[in-house]
Amino acid sequence: MSDDHVYLTLAEGHEDDTRWAYGTGFEDPLHGVDTTVPDGVDAAALAALCVALGDDALVSAQRLGEWVTRAPELEEEVALANIGLDLLGQARLLYSRAGQTDGTGRDEDAYAYFRDAADFRNVRLAELPGGDFAFTIVRLLVLSSWRLAHFERLASHPDPVLSAIATKGAKELRYHRQYAAEWAVRLGDGTEESHRRMRRAQEQVAPYLGELFTAFDVRQEVVADLKQVTDAAGLPMPVYRPLPGCGREGEHTEHLAPLLAELQGVARAHPEATW
């Protein structure tokens, strides 16, 4: 199966080929959406969900941003930067919703810049160091497939704000998944060296897959996506080797704190600064 075929198959049924960064269009996904928490929706649980999904997006965006000036080609640098901006936009909306519903009234900056690593609830796969391009592609494929499956379910969430965020975000995540799938096939079915690196990347990612499926029950959708791509790339399916600990419970690797130090340094040094 060619990488073009994988791309077209994964995109099937989604004619809206959204490839631009969050915020570059003129459509506000929350325009006219009632921000009142609906009856029957647990506001605390809603806020916790928004924070967790926002943390996944923010940490992933920071890792993708590390490829700026370092990607193998200018086109890939722009693509990875735009994917990171998409995720950053999702994080901003999710943090804003969390602040509206958790009773604190915190804004997006408070969540992003003024929490310590132990307060973050992102999955650990997002925080691992960038590694080589193959690792970035394997991680992006896994995380985008997983996040897309969850966002497609959240599009029917009873909270209209989260539903709107998920509906908008799913359009972007389909492109993220397709981009990663194209590269996974090129590298897996490419040279001996690129195939070797993809196998190594799969081994590095595999221990963290169990945490994803524990966080949200979307295993069936994600496994189907991964199998389609790995079959086309001549790669095996990753073998789950679960590690103890859970990012959703504030248990992180040693890599998150220094990553957040880079992200939060200026804001903490000048907390009252304005543009």
From TrEMBL:
It holds the Pfam family PaaA_PaaC. It is an enzyme of class 1 (oxidoreductase). InterPro entries: Aromatic_CoA_ox/epox, Ferritin-like, Ferritin-like_SF, PaaA_PaaC, PaaC. Its EC number is 1.14.13.149. It comes from the Bacteria. GO terms for molecular function: phenylacetyl-CoA 1,2-epoxidase activity. Keywords: Oxidoreductase. The keyword Oxidoreductase applies. SUPFAM superfamilies: Ferritin-like. The keyword Metal-binding does not apply. This is Phenylacetate-CoA oxygenase subunit PaaC. The gene is paaC.
